Each structure stands twice: as structure tokens, then as C-alpha cells.
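Narrative of activities, Objective 1.

The group set out to show that a structural description can be obtained from nothing but a protein's sequence at a throughput compatible with the screening campaign. Below is one input-output pair from the validation batch, recorded exactly as produced.
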Amino acid sequence: MATRKSPSTGANAAADAFTRTSALLDPVRLRVWDSLGLTVTQLRVLGHLNEQDGLGNAELADRLFVTRPSVSALLERLERNGFIRREISLADRRGIRILLEPAGREAVNSAREEVRQYAATMLEGLTEDQVKSLTAAFGLINESTGGKKK
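Output recorded for this entry:
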């Protein structure tokens, strides 16, 4: 078994600052979730489908780190409320593809935009160089963790 190297003091301090800063977004996230009538996990399902429409139950369960029965329950509520639809996969007649409905896409996009605007107001007091540094650092974090560059 490979041993894991402990993060440096600087990395720990940066992680603490990142976590505290991330928590500043909680009030707007909670307001958005409440206004949409969605749980955080339901919104994550919609987010994954917004990135890659047509995923199956198993892949969603893996991406969300939940069980397949949990995904099925999430999908049932999302479908009942018009955010998604399920259809038989043309590639595998036994499989089901989950597709976003316009209401689901709108929920994801409006949630992301509201959080983005809120975050932008938090950065208004920074200099242009500080914003560039943050943007570069966040880009490196996303790239190093396999995140998508937007």
C-alpha cells in the first residue's frame, strides 16, 4: 500500500482559506436550492446531466457517490417535477438514458448564474492583479483534479 504524503504547511493553510471562502457561498446556494425546490443532490444530478446528457443510473450513482436505489429515488422526483425524462437507450435496449428537460436545464443555468454573480460581488474589492492570480490558481486546481475548464 502506497503511503500518502502529508500536505505542506502552506498547502494546509491554503486549503483552510479555500474551505472558509467556499463556505461564503452557502447563503446564496441555500436560497437558490430553496427557490427551486431542489435538494443539493438533485441539483448535482441536473448539473451532471447538463454536462453530459443521456447518462445512465449506474454512471450517475458513481458520479454522485451514492447507491443505485438512491439515484432511482432522486430521478423519480426529478421526473415527476418535469426536470428530467427517462428513455430507453437505443444502444442497449435494457439501459435507460436520463435526459434534461428544459426546466432542468433552466434550473441548473439559473442556479449557476446566481452563484456566479454572488461570487463576483465578493471579488469586487480585489485588484485586477489579485483577480488574475485567483483565476490562474482556480484554473490550476481544476486542471489538476480533472475539472473542466470553462
